[in-house]
Amino acid sequence: MSRSKKTTITLFNYGGGMRGLVPAHFMARIEEVTGLRMTDMVDIFAGPSTGSILNAALNVPHPDDPSRPRFRARHMIRFYEREGANIFPSDRFRDFRALIHDFNNRTMKIGQLNKLFRHGHYDTANLRRSLDALYGKARLGDSLKSLIIPVYNLDGEQLIPVEEAGETDEAPVHTQNNFIDEGGHAVWLKHIRAPLQGGAAPDVSLFDAVLASTAAPTYFPCHHFEVSYPDSRGKRQYSGIDGSIFDNPCISYHGAVRRHIPEDHEPVMIVLGTGHRLRSFKKDEWNRFGGLGVVDPVNDLPLINILFHASETALMEGFGEELGDNLYVFNKSLVGNTDPYKTPGAQIDDASPDNLKKLKYFFEEMFEENKDRFDDICHLLVTNRDRKEADKSPKRSFFSFFSGRSGKA
């Protein structure tokens, strides 16, 4: 990357429930080393699910100084450690309730059973309380830096019909980006701040946007909420589920980020992972699963994991070639380490004290494996901050990350 060229840095935080502790630790280390906040150094925050919890929280203005962030990254470590067991309370019978619910839906269809067994979901009241404590009344448009929150909307009625060219008024074909006006679709809830190229933010609370983006299927019900757009779209009602359904760094960059970066800026993306659980299979092992085995939790949901990661594996090579040295990915496999005393659980709802320790160890291990690249991104982040501060005040000289000086914390 040309150090003399202006940069736009995007930080992408993956989803992963309690595994959000890993990027929280990573960002806390960055803030500790640089003496700066993430919002001082990053231009665009993106990522779904637990990543959206982190991104939105770091962009909430402080009530006493709205130009500064309310939370540090280390506060988010405490958030997961304190709230995790409330959001995901230990419940040995959750899977059993889900099984009874599904069996009832297919056979007896007894309404009272549906109410009794609550679909196998966790109680959203605990998650709601936790997110409300983080965001309060903050809106998406209040975010200190550009913020992108992905949500998958289940309600196809909220697509905008478009008449195909050449069709008569009597028989229009309604499509959205060449898709028939039915079914669900991805939604980017974005606040793009100047000097990046974007319009006014839609009016939606951070609470609603994040709650929808974290509504992981089988763990939480979908979240129904309203968004008011400042253009012809007007008000839209969404039934949102986890943005991880479609989002990954490649899709975020091409679908939501790149269009907002000025032509004279060089795009940089830093990706902080939560550990991936995609494993390989021999043909005989796969064939033994059969029709139900490929979606059986006993086998660790092999088909579901493949569907979550397939698009990323297809796009990553071209994505890496496009960004080249401007792409920094910090992630590693959760299934490669055979030591059960050091490997965190792949489940997103494991909030046990033992797993919290394993997640911290997982971060430390990943950090040690990427020390040189960590120094590189710290230097890059501080340089990005310096350049933008200099643009605001041209007479102010730059300071070097390696000079030992730190910025306002």
Short recap of the structure:
40% of the residues lie in helices and 14% in strands. It has 13 helices and eleven strands. The strands form two sheets. Strands 1, 2, 3, 7, 8, 9, 10 and 11 form an eight-stranded mixed beta sheet that branches. A three-stranded antiparallel beta sheet has the order 4-5-6, with no helix packed on it.
Care to describe what's here?
The protein is of the alpha/beta class. Helix content is 40%, strand content 14%. It is built from 13 helices and eleven strands. It has helices at 21-34, 38-41, 50-58, 73-87, 94-106, 111-117, 124-135, 206-213, 249-257, 283-293, 302-323, 353-369, 371-392; strands at residues 6-13, 44-46, 146-153, 162-163, 174-176, 179-180, 185-191, 223-228, 235-242, 265-272, 327-330. The protein is globular, with a radius of gyration of 22 Å.
Question: What's the rounded overall pLDDT mean?
Answer: 85
Compute the number of helices: 13
Give the overall silhouette. globular
Strand content: 5-15%
Distance N to C terminus = 27 Å
Encode the helix/strand succession as letters.
EHHEHHHHHEEEEEHEEHEHHEHH
Supply Rg. Answer: 22 Å
Count the beta strands.
11
Return residue spans where pLDDT drops below 50 for at least 5 consecutive residues. Answer: 96-106, 164-168, 396-400, 402-409
Record the SSE blueprint.
Layout: E1 6-13, H1 21-34, H2 38-41, E2 44-46, H3 50-58, H4 73-87, H5 94-106, H6 111-117, H7 124-135, E3 146-153, E4 162-163, E5 174-176, E6 179-180, E7 185-191, H8 206-213, E8 223-228, E9 235-242, H9 249-257, E10 265-272, H10 283-293, H11 302-323, E11 327-330, H12 353-369, H13 371-392
Parallel strand pairs: 1-2, 1-10, 2-3, 10-11
Antiparallel strand pairs: 3-7, 3-9, 4-5, 5-6, 8-9
Helix pairs in contact: 1-4, 1-12, 4-7, 7-8
